């Protein structure tokens, strides 16, 4: 399957190459693909990924067709495969897909155009991982030896599941923290107060309420008190440590309002970098390398 389904199938050197290509694009390198057409198919809500992919496509001079899932024939029972096959028949050069189903792409093995995975269920979000890594690389100029703790709803997070393996492969020490009920064992769990004081990267996650099978027993106020990143906790972080969050953020829940845009936060920089990371992936694919 061409395009990008998961970073896990790429070599470490290829991931570094894509990060460096994204950084080159951010510095102003331009390439365009006139006449190319890519469809964006979002079956699950999105702000950043949806419109960041569209910005990336515009910057590459690529025409965009956007599926409105709520008015499409999906509502008449059309399968994901037949929907994507339709866009292939319409002459698309690729499709960007976000879907609530884990590994939805397994249904698309007979699709012959590149697929860009914009998030599948709780499994993976490869362009989010790439923009996260780009942001870390821009900040520290390396990965080897950096310590990152991902804090929050790990169990339901495609961001955590996409990032942990790749960060480890790049030589980072990766930990998880937050409520024990969200510990799915994807990395070593450590207490939050230890994480705050020792990490280079504190990566927060929102609670994925839409994926919880049972309501949370803890109140939002108690969650914020115990696991939210508040300014008093930020004051305990290492001098050069940074705060990341894939967003959307829930201000006052996993992160305090005044922390979202504090000097250690790279949350909006991550969004900016997402455009360049996605440009790199699309360009490399249309050049025949992915
Ligand atoms: N980070 C992220 O995937 O955000 P959206 O759900 O808004 O695309």
Outline the secondary-structure elements.
Blueprint: E1 3-4, H1 12-26, E2 37-42, H2 48-59, E3 63-67, H3 80-89, E4 94-99, E5 115-120, H4 126-140, E6 147-151, H5 158-169, E7 173-177, E8 188-189, H6 192-198, E9 201-204, H7 220-227, H8 231-234, E10 242-244, H9 257-260, H10 267-286
Parallel strand pairs: 1-5, 2-3, 2-4, 4-5, 6-7, 6-9, 7-8, 9-10
The residue fraction in helices comes out at 25-40%
CATH level 1 name of the largest domain:
Alpha Beta
Content-based structural category: alpha/beta
CATH superfamily of the largest domain: Aspartate/ornithine carbamoyltransferase
Give me the count of strands.
Answer: 10
The poorly predicted ranges are: none
| Ligands | phosphoric acid mono(formamide)ester
How far apart are the first and last residues' alpha carbons, in Å?
9 Å
- Gyration radius, rounded: 19 Å
Do you know the CATH topology of the largest domain? Rossmann fold
Largest sheet: 5 strands, parallel
- From the 3D coordinates, which CATH architecture of the largest domain would you assign? 3-Layer(aba) Sandwich
Rounded average pLDDT: 96
SSE string: EHEHEHEEHEHEEHEHHEHH
**Count of discrete structural domains:** 2
Instruction: Kindly report the spatial arrangement of strands forming the biggest sheet.
Output: 1-5-4-2-3
